[in-house]
Oxidoreductase (Pedobacter ginsenosidimutans), 323 residues
Amino acid sequence: MEEIRWGIIGCGDVTEVKSGPAFNKVANSKLVAVMRRDGTKAADYAKRHQVPKWYNDAAQLINDPEVNAIYIATPPLQHEAYTIEALKAGKPVYVEKPMTLDAEAAQRMTDAANQLKVKLCVAHYRRAQPMFLKVKELLAANTIGDVRLVRLKMLQSPNPALITKTADNWRINPAISGGGLFHDLAPHQLDLMTYYFGAVKNAMGIATKQQENTKVDDLVAGNILFENGVVFSGTWCFSVSPQDQADSCVVYGSKGHISFPMFGNKITVTTDQTEEFIFESLQHVQQPMIEKVVDYFLNKGENPCSGEEALITMKLMDDFTRK
């Protein structure tokens, strides 16, 4: 392949700005078709984004000879089936996070990619963003000395602003999402932890429903011991008051600490002095990752996030929620 010609399965809200337009802005990449079960909405998306083709049937998009790579942006319930269907058609897949509903399904997807020898990437796109790459650089440079522990807090009131709004609010239906807002947000954070600190030795957690009339856990607490001795502790709660909302990750070392949010643009490094790094907001948050995926599909780079790497995150979420 000399050019990646993308087809999107599930051209919903998440693709409007975060990812969709970036496929036409990356070198050697073009968005040629989109699919949504509601044909009227698919046609509208195609018209607004100048996409040549639209479908209301995923199989038709997958088998379109002009499409040579698939981006799956449906809710997690459909990720496994569409991924395996596309892989069987010989088309590399870029699938949204969370990779799927649980670790067992993620394992099947990874196994299928390996058995069929077709490329699979997972959209843990913070790995490619300048701010989070800077954190990795600071850690590698031993800026805060030997890392001891990590404390993460994601505290939000019900219906937080940082969640992409959808008409049916599928994220709080565990049959579709896998487990509520924790399953929507935690993949970003847990993937970064394994990206920064490597292999997991063991993990455990607790999860509970504290609000009435909810089908999903709204409070999750989890701990990880990494093979290198770093200890992680995270708390996710989606029922606090607005004034108590928090989004913070603090990495403590023998010489100081690094703090940064998951949804923000500033890193603060505190040792014997304090230094701040400010980053410009990205118009399309997935564009740096899509650049790396395109290079990988064209055999010009490594896989920026493999099924095996994303499977680790799925296992951690299962460990924390005791699935």
Observations:
- DSSP finds nine helices and 14 strands in the chain.
- The longest helix spans residues 181-197.
- The chain has a mean pLDDT of 95.
